[in-house]
Specification:
Blueprint lengths: L6 H11 L6 E5 L5 E5 L7 E2 L1 E11 L6 E9 L5 H14 L1
Length: 94
């Protein structure tokens, strides 16, 4: 008699087998400070991405070229991003 796994079990199986996609974005705060953020903890990437929306791409028909935009919401409850930004602003003003 076969059993069908529920949605939670299927999600856990997909994650363990590597079939669940992951979004990783690298922020180049400075030339020497690159931090990766992801939609969940993965390797060295911190799971801080809460929402991604507005992925839009426009291709110019005349003259070529393209433009795109993306909206991202990142969790900064621990103020780690705020401290990195403050450090970058301090370095750039010196």
């Amino acid at each position: 008699m076969s059993r069908n796994p529920n949605a939670t079990a299927e999600a856990q199986i997909a994650q363990k087998l590597g079939t669940e996609p992951i979004l990783i974005l690298a922020f180049y705060w400075t030339d020497s400070l690159i931090v990766e953020y992801a939609d969940r903890d993965y390797g060295g990437a911190k799971g801080k991405i809460l929402q991604v929306s507005g992925l839009d791409s426009v291709i110019k028909l005349k003259g070529g070229g393209s433009a795109g935009s993306l909206s991202i919401t990142i969790d900064d409850k621990d103020s780690s991003i705020k401290s990195v930004r403050s450090m970058c602003i301090k370095v750039s003003s010196e």
